[in-house]
Design a protein that fits this description.
Blueprint: H1 11-34, H2 38-50, E1 53-54, H3 55-62, H4 66-78, E2 82-86, E3 94-98, H5 100-120, H6 126-147
Antiparallel strand pairs: 1-3, 2-3
Helix pairs in contact: 1-5, 2-4, 3-4
C-alpha cells in the first residue's frame, strides 16, 4: 500500500474532478437552454420519474442537502414548474409535484439530457459502459457503507 498521497492518482479526488466537470458541463447547457440550475433540473427529473414527494424525500433521493433542495424547490415554484400539495402522511410538510408546465419542460429537457449523455460517452464501447455502471454501483455501495 502506498504511503505517499498523489492527488492525480487518488481515486476519490479523480472521481470528484470528473464528476464536477461533467456536472458543470451539463449545468451550463441546462442554464443556457432552459434557465435551470443543475439542482433544479435534478428535482424536475426526480419528480418526473418518481412522482410527488416531500422535500425531505427529495433530499434522500438526490443526495442534496436541505438548503439546496429548498432553494431549488422555491425557484421551481416561482416559475410554476412545481406545485405544492398537503402531505397526507405528515401535516407539517407538503408534497412537491410537477405542474403541467413542469411536465412540458421535462419533455423538452429529457431528450437533450440523453443526447448530452450520448455525446459525453461516445468514445466508450457499450460493453465498457455496462461495466462502468456496475462499477459505479459498487463504488456508491462502498461509500454508503462507510457513512453508516
Amino acid at each position: 500500500m502506498p504511503t505517499t498521497l498523489k492527488l492525480d492518482e487518488f481515486l476519490p479526488y479523480r472521481l470528484s474532478i470528473v464528476s464536477n466537470l461533467v456536472s458543470d458541463t451539463v449545468a451550463e447547457a441546462y442554464r443556457a437552454l432552459f434557465g435551470l440550475k443543475i439542482s433544479e433540473w435534478r428535482l424536475v427529473a426526480v419528480l418526473a420519474e418518481d412522482g410527488a414527494m416531500s422535500q425531505q424525500a427529495l433530499c434522500g433521493r438526490t443526495h442534496m442537502d436541505k438548503v439546496t433542495v429548498s432553494r431549488a424547490a422555491i425557484a421551481l415554484a416561482d416559475r410554476r414548474l412545481v406545485e405544492r400539495a398537503p402531505n397526507p402522511d405528515d401535516q407539517r410538510s407538503h408534497l412537491l409535484g410537477l405542474s403541467e408546465e413542469g411536465w412540458r419542460l421535462y419533455e423538452q429537457i429529457a431528450p437533450e439530457a440523453l443526447q448530452m449523455e450520448q455525446r459525453i460517452f461516445a468514445d466508450i464501447d457499450p460493453a465498457e459502459l455496462v461495466r462502468f455502471r456496475e462499477m459505479l454501483d459498487r463504488i456508491q455501495s462502498g461509500a454508503e457503507a462507510l457513512r453508516e
